[in-house]
Amino acid sequence: MVKVGIVGGTGYTGVELLRLLAQHPDVEIVAITSRGDAGTAVSSMFPSLRGRLDLKFEDPSLANLKGCDVVFFATPNGVAMQQAPQLLDAGVRVVDLAADFRITDVAEWEKWYGMQHVSPEWVAKAVYGLPEFNRAAIREARLVANPGCYPTAVQLGFMPLVEAGLVDLDHLIADAKSGVSGAGRKAEVSSLFSEAADNFKAYGVTGHRHLPEIRQGLSRIAGHAVGLTFVPHLTPLIRGIHATLYAKIKGEADFQALFENRYADEPFVDVMPTKSHPDTRSVRASNLCRIAVHRPQGSDTLVVLSVIDNLVKGAAGQAVQNMNIMLGLTETVGLWQLPVLP
Amino acid sequence: MVKVGIVGGTGYTGVELLRLLAQHPDVEIVAITSRGDAGTAVSSMFPSLRGRLDLKFEDPSLANLKGCDVVFFATPNGVAMQQAPQLLDAGVRVVDLAADFRITDVAEWEKWYGMQHVSPEWVAKAVYGLPEFNRAAIREARLVANPGCYPTAVQLGFMPLVEAGLVDLDHLIADAKSGVSGAGRKAEVSSLFSEAADNFKAYGVTGHRHLPEIRQGLSRIAGHAVGLTFVPHLTPLIRGIHATLYAKIKGEADFQALFENRYADEPFVDVMPTKSHPDTRSVRASNLCRIAVHRPQGSDTLVVLSVIDNLVKGAAGQAVQNMNIMLGLTETVGLWQLPVLP
Amino acid sequence: MVKVGIVGGTGYTGVELLRLLAQHPDVEIVAITSRGDAGTAVSSMFPSLRGRLDLKFEDPSLANLKGCDVVFFATPNGVAMQQAPQLLDAGVRVVDLAADFRITDVAEWEKWYGMQHVSPEWVAKAVYGLPEFNRAAIREARLVANPGCYPTAVQLGFMPLVEAGLVDLDHLIADAKSGVSGAGRKAEVSSLFSEAADNFKAYGVTGHRHLPEIRQGLSRIAGHAVGLTFVPHLTPLIRGIHATLYAKIKGEADFQALFENRYADEPFVDVMPTKSHPDTRSVRASNLCRIAVHRPQGSDTLVVLSVIDNLVKGAAGQAVQNMNIMLGLTETVGLWQLPVLP
Amino acid sequence: MVKVGIVGGTGYTGVELLRLLAQHPDVEIVAITSRGDAGTAVSSMFPSLRGRLDLKFEDPSLANLKGCDVVFFATPNGVAMQQAPQLLDAGVRVVDLAADFRITDVAEWEKWYGMQHVSPEWVAKAVYGLPEFNRAAIREARLVANPGCYPTAVQLGFMPLVEAGLVDLDHLIADAKSGVSGAGRKAEVSSLFSEAADNFKAYGVTGHRHLPEIRQGLSRIAGHAVGLTFVPHLTPLIRGIHATLYAKIKGEADFQALFENRYADEPFVDVMPTKSHPDTRSVRASNLCRIAVHRPQGSDTLVVLSVIDNLVKGAAGQAVQNMNIMLGLTETVGLWQLPVLP
């Protein structure tokens, strides 16, 4: 059994990690920490786990995290960069679900995240945990920077086109819509039911923290800088991201076949038949990404639809997938639950 | 492997059966029928099953249902009473998720369901599939009448009190709230998003079909007729039933202990600590029933809160639980997924 | 024009007051205060008011509230009892939308609200602002204690029965369901979209602050103490309360006629035809209460369904209605908008 | 008083017309028709109108529509083209809320709507009812083709840019999201609560009927053909459209000032300050369109956000606005209600 620890388990990515790991046949959760809720039974905060997870939140300073094989950081940005290095130095593998190690350009990271990075050396060693792009490196990684939710949906949707170089890479457009759980389990007015229900809005159009991450990822795939307009929106669902991607065609191809071939061996990416419209509920509570490719009215603009569950493939599920890869487990183990529909 | 067939798989109980059975380690789904959608791939109607269930809907007359060990009827009321007998005669076990075999008084059934019963002899042989009350009989059953969703939540909430005879059985009150999936996947104006979202209402206060079923169940538990006021409501959630039950105390007891003892060995009933308020999401997509017992302000009125997922413990999950019991499998196998929260 | 001030306008009852008063033909809003947001344009916080309300939030100490004819307190509990007396002494009429003056038994109030009352003399002078019960007194009032949302729906539903003395007043049951805006515009985890959407739960079963208010109101109507079990629930709608009321019949009557006659002259109470099921959206954004009376299956338990919009008839609308009555305006002026459906 | 008739009043645009017209000070509703519901009181179908509208649905053949000054068609596509001409010939003015007279190229219309047009001569005479573009012509119109919901939001968002010729008109992109009421009050599985709630999806990416209407409108504004990619999405709200518009900048300008100047005199278009994110609820139940203009990260791609209530500015409200203009009434009369927030 793999010994697993979770730092910061009181948010939505934390409880989703618990849901997945508690059902993972090869995993034993040995510690979960929370500074504010130390001593509280996990199942009293999350009754969905009653009878199935007999753990209490522990103070981070007291928990035996160094005795773990893997530690997940489900903490706010800025925590893992402080606490992960000592675990890494002790030989523990780390998956950070926050943004601390995602951006390789430290100055860029500091600009977007508004703090100084205290562990730039580990930024350099971290592996970006998008298995469909980076599986070989993840296998060897000690520290995985788990991608953001929007970046996962957008990169998987653009990747075959960018790799093939068939579209105008200076004017990519990603119009993305997220459920409210993406904002986390923080008490903020803008995330209240009475604010977010029966309402739809864009936000962060002037600049969202996932923009540099997506731009870095697509540039890495392309081998050179790309131009991207990224507009995130808040939509009244709990879970789910729908990315609608636009690209101007520069070279002809059978785009459907391009996508199908690219993802033929990927267990968690499903390229749907032509003319499909994947809906977010078709991946709800699962680690899947479903994609459809359209060329409306035969124009020179390609439209790609990409959906994920932001808490699973966009966070906790992908983190478990990365753990499986790092440890040489079957990549899909513990992640094979069917989506919940309706 | 148990060979399973499903008659009428295009509704919500049907797709939920598919979700559960496709993940059941001891089950092989060999046939699923739909008169209207014969020839259609199941996964094209329900993309959540893409890549995991390679079956087409078959015409009921052509499907090899007699070759199954168990057949589930997820059909509208009135179908199973016509088609189940020939399967039963051929030695197939049957679980009916509709109401055809739930009410033992055939005349009463005909009054509430507005049709003539064509198989009263099987009504007499059918076993009411509430395992917490009827496990021994289910074990021997050839035909299980799977309980309705409201009846499951209400009976489990009242059962310890009725068995103990500690409350006024002439004036029980069940104020129940259901998510909209309880109305099924039928195209009806009243179930439209724009009608049911951001809206709350009672319905069927003059008389709902689940009233006689609950009354029969509670009377059977009590050993004599009970008086019940049952008011169902529609609330804007997809899945979930919350039953708020009121009973006048006739005799003193430690009601918390009464409930805890009654359900101590039940894998799917969770009696929560005193002062708890179970929410429907704490059982979402799981086969659990969670119950809390209150005596507000020390008055002589007891309040019991009982929640289930109407599609799981209220339908497909309980059906699989009944199948497990009938076939001598571990009762919880295939039903051990954790609730999805948030 | 009536000069109106609002203390504490940044919550949901505050913005609803603004919506109603900005459209009231006889009203001029001259001041709105907020300690935390002084200097902010109201329409920058609530874009729905852009171009229609040219006011800034002012610091309470600086606003010319004493120059108003009426001041509304849309503040947290405990503020009005401190600030209203000096306005009252200056001859300003006050409507308090919080609970400070609702409970005449000050010790009882202090128990439920957990603070010491600093203005018990004004509790004695305050008039409980339920126009359908108390219109004459409101007409003469200087200080109106605007009823709570649950108390409005429950009292209007029970009132004809309690007045007529036809039901068992020792065992009234009020099973009430509220939209999430009832919890206010406070940043709390339990009110987050991801917590409250697609979820249903009871809360405060052991004792909710509206219990003593309802009990006081019904006892006043009855002329003696009544026994009440009150169970509030949270349901995923923004606005709306649905109260389902249960009472045991002690004396026979034409209950439908009883209700119709009682409310025949009430502009904001609509008794629906027999067998009706009022839904919350049928009163959404309006000052109406709709009521239906049922006697299911001819039993001895009466069921009354009562719906309001918690922010209008349950708060801001009723406050404006009280202002209209106090000032001798037409009672319905400014409150005659049709409900928004769908 | 203006005598008004409504043909087909049982859908969402019909009931919204009723809500607005019943509160319009200069209007008397004299007839409302429905073939299927003739004889039914309007308020029994829509309890929100109880006590405020004392009309029954009449059979279209019997209603005195020719005695009206204006008749609104709130019917499915294909009805108005058959029934409007005789009213027009009798001197009645007509506003068609369906699509029958929107597309001037009859062959194009027939292709998209799948039926033969029976009144092409009235297509030629009809005036497209987008007041912000076409006010002078509407003033003289006998027949107004009321714009579609998406076309209203998209055209108002693009109009200043297209008029100014500052963007690449060959590659406009409109990513639009609509609440479910846009699908109408038809009993269809895809519009069920359990399908549309907690779910997000694109639809009609291969070609939606509003595409030719928007393309025609923008081409008319531009003076030549434009290229447009239009992707509609379904989002779980009842009312509201959010259009996110993308255009490549060809010439520099102060885009904020361009929009503000263009709409300075428009009562129903609100250009918000720079960096704003209009949300759909800020226009809920009102006739407003709110717009924000962004140039993210100083790139050469402009992003315009445009929100309306699809049932008001996108249907019934705009129809009343057109009526006001046609009849020489104050344009805003009956349409001045504030948005309902929250």
TrEMBL record, chains A, B, C, D:
UniProt KW NADP keyword: yes
Main location: cytoplasm
Keywords: Amino-acid biosynthesis, Arginine biosynthesis, Cytoplasm, NADP, Oxidoreductase
Positions annotated as active site in the UniProt record: C149
Any one GO CC term of the record: cytoplasm
Record localization: Cytoplasm
GO molecular function, a single term: NADP+ binding
GO annotation, biological process: L-arginine biosynthetic process
Catalytic reaction(s) noted: N-acetyl-L-glutamate 5-semialdehyde + phosphate + NADP(+) = N-acetyl-L-glutamyl 5-phosphate + NADPH + H(+)
EC number: 1.2.1.38
Oxidoreductase recorded as keyword: yes
Domain Semialdehyde dehydrogenase NAD-binding: 3-141
Pathway recorded for this protein: Amino-acid biosynthesis; L-arginine biosynthesis; N(2)-acetyl-L-ornithine from L-glutamate: step 3/4
CDD domains in alphabetical order: AGPR_1_C, AGPR_1_N
Sequence similarity: Belongs to the NAGSA dehydrogenase family. Type 1 subfamily.
Function of the molecule: Catalyzes the NADPH-dependent reduction of N-acetyl-5-glutamyl phosphate to yield N-acetyl-L-glutamate 5-semialdehyde.
PANTHER family in alphabetical order: N-ACETYL-GAMMA-GLUTAMYL-PHOSPHATE REDUCTASE, CHLOROPLASTIC-RELATED, N-ACETYL-GAMMA-GLUTAMYL-PHOSPHATE REDUCTASE, CHLOROPLASTIC-RELATED-RELATED
Protein name, as recorded: N-acetyl-gamma-glutamyl-phosphate reductase
Organism encoding this protein: Candidatus Propionivibrio dominans
Organismal lineage: Bacteria, Pseudomonadati, Pseudomonadota, Betaproteobacteria, Rhodocyclales
